[in-house]
Write a structure and sequence with these properties.
Helix content is about 25%, strand content about 20%. It is built from 12 helices and 14 strands. A hairpin with a 7-residue loop joins strand 9 and strand 10. About 10% of the residues have low confidence.
């Protein structure tokens, strides 16, 4: 069987066709129902129309044409090629991708994640992730050893995360879920927290089971300090503590939003059915500089809800510059055309944690990427350039 999302891939790539009732009899007359050979392109072109929407309604006596089970299981087939990016791999493939390493020992590694890089394999990004890059680096180049998650024995690597199945993965960033199921845990070995694809900055990854357990506990119990830098549109104003719950958008399921006041009185007035409340989210926003159009802000987060900083700043009316989900499209187009930047200008600048084994307090800082620095320098006075 293929998943619902994979069915969507076939539909969006026009691999599913319909034959109208008027053409059905002619089509059947030219094909043998007992024949297992593929339908010829000529017949498809003559009789078939691609279905372009998932909500397509089939007329009575129409015929649905779609890739056979055999073609979906054949790696060389066109249908399988389309589905390949939506099917999880069975193992992590090491890839020689450069990493900006801030710190490493035998228990953990700390990186300055680059923009455009997903942290671990997931739907739509099964390779070229931080995990793929770490697999290569730790097995081939690390002076501190590969740790427990990446070994030459792939079978052991895949099973190393079994102890964590069903437990929460606590996210420290503003872009991802605070808890994630471990159904594909072997694809994210050692991952304690995540940064979104477009976000740069400090990311810590465990190299041993013990380190992962300790770091995960610290993130879950909010014993870490996280500081971000962002460029926001407009004037963010006075320093402020934003304490507004965040939940998934009821219509756009890939987006989050500040959940409206769900007090009992408002629920009674608006609906007889109580609305689902969001999860608590707290951000402390400090305006570092404003040039009349854009603001450079420093944000400390006490929680790590999905898209937290982006949603809080959008709700404040000052979305992050370059954010194509929560930002202003005209501003984003200008940023893309003038500077070639197509990502939210958000950077995880600083992370304070205790070492998972020694307990030593550790502080890691990372400089923003050059594209973000260029925008910041256009806002800052000459004597404050970064």
């Amino acid at each position: 069987r293929i998943s619902r999302s994979q069915c969507g891939v076939l539909l969006s790539n026009q691999c599913v066709f319909v034959i109208s009732p008027d053409d059905a009899s002619n089509f059947l007359a030219e094909t043998d129902p007992a024949e297992t050979a593929p339908i010829s392109p000529e017949l498809i072109e003559q009789y078939c129309s691609p279905i372009e929407r998932k909500s397509h309604i089939l007329e009575a006596n129409s015929i649905l044409v779609y890739p056979s089970r055999q073609s979906l299981l054949t790696t060389s087939s066109a249908a399988m090629a389309l589905l390949s990016n939506s099917m999880p791999p069975t193992e992590i493939i090491p890839q020689n991708i450069p990493l900006d390493i801030l710190y490493e020992d035998e228990y953990m590694i700390v990186l300055n994640k680059a923009a455009g890089m997903v942290v671990h394999p997931a739907a739509g990004n099964w390779d070229c992730t931080v995990v793929n890059a770490l697999a290569h680096y730790l097995m081939n180049e690390s002076p501190y050893g590969s740790g427990e998650y990446f070994t030459k024995d792939r079978e052991n690597t895949q099973n190393d995360n079994e102890d964590f199945d069903g437990e929460e993965l606590n996210d420290d960033d503003d872009n991802m879920n605070d808890s994630v199921t471990n159904s594909i845990s072997m694809l994210r070995p050692g991952i304690v927290h995540r940064l979104d694809k477009g976000t740069t900055g400090v990311l810590v990854v465990a190299k041993t089971r013990t380190a992962l357990a300790k770091l995960s506990e610290a993130f879950a119990n909010r014993r870490v300090k996280k500081q971000y830098i962002a460029v926001a549109i407009g004037h963010t104003g006075e320093d402020q503590w934003i304490d507004k719950p965040i939940g998934r958008h009821p219509l756009h399921r890939q987006r989050m939003r500040v959940v409206p006041d769900a007090s009992p009185m408002k629920q009674i007035r608006l609906s007889a059915t109580p609305k689902k409340q969001g999860r608590p989210a707290q951000s402390y926003v400090q305006t570092l500089h404003h040039d009349g159009k854009l603001s450079i802000v420093q944000v400390q987060i006490a929680t790590g809800r999905t898209h937290q900083i982006r949603v809080h700043l959008q709700d404040h009316g000052t979305p992050i510059y370059g954010d194509d989900v929560y930002g202003f499209s005209d501003w984003n187009k200008a940023l893309s055309s003038r500077r070639g930047i197509t990502r939210p200008l958000l950077h995880a600048k600083r992370l304070e944690i205790n070492h998972p084994i020694t307990g030593e307090k550790m502080v890691f800082e990372a400089e923003p990427a050059n594209d973000m620095k260029g925008v910041m320098n256009a806002i800052l006075p000459l004597d404050e350039q970064v």
